[in-house]
Fold this protein.
Amino acid sequence: MTGFLTLFGKEFLRFWKVSFQTIAAPVLTALLYLLIFGHVLDDHVQVHGVRYTSFLVPGLVMMQILQNAFANSSSSLIQAKITGSIVFVLLPPIPYSVFFAAYVLAALARGLLVGLGVLAATVWFADLRVVAPLWVLVFALFGGALFAALGMIAGIWSEKFDHLAGFQNFLIMPLTMLSGVFYSIYTLPAFWQDLSHYNPVFYMIDGFRYGFFGVSDVAPEVSLTVVFACFAAVSVLTLSLLKRGWKLRG
């Protein structure tokens, strides 16, 4: 536990000491999304009988949880590799499973803190009701943990910040922006509806939103199964890379 607590504390303090950038800035970004889209569409659009602003808030919360969990673990690893400080993490006799748990949980903590900040900042603009809080918690935890583990893969694979930016711009951003954050997939043409079902982030957003309104595009049990399967697969891959020391040990 000493190794875990030390690594977790290091990763937590890493983002907490610059919380204006790592927490406040994403909250402001989400608030701007809400003000712009909500102002334009709130009087014209309802989704599942829910005001558009209210519909949008859970999607924004979940999007920020995912993006910030990914950003924390990926940026930490790439910085450690570039500066050479990764050696101080690899030298102690810490099991790779502890390494994985500390980085994932610290990244998840950042994602959840940002998500709570977004919720607190936007709740005044929406009529939110939490009909299934357990679903909200489960999807927030598994979704954030999945993206934290994916961030570790990106950080391990990347050799410079350009590689990491490419991972974010060409994979993470399209997956989150095209996942139903701003719309219900049933407003799309049939082809795009079918394609959306191959996007795992859609299930995270949809299941998380179900916890607030009790309505969703897909049954929450199906969404949770997909999210858990993706988390298990990504975790196994990450643990395998850590065990091999791929691109971590020179």
Notes: The chain has a mean pLDDT of 91.
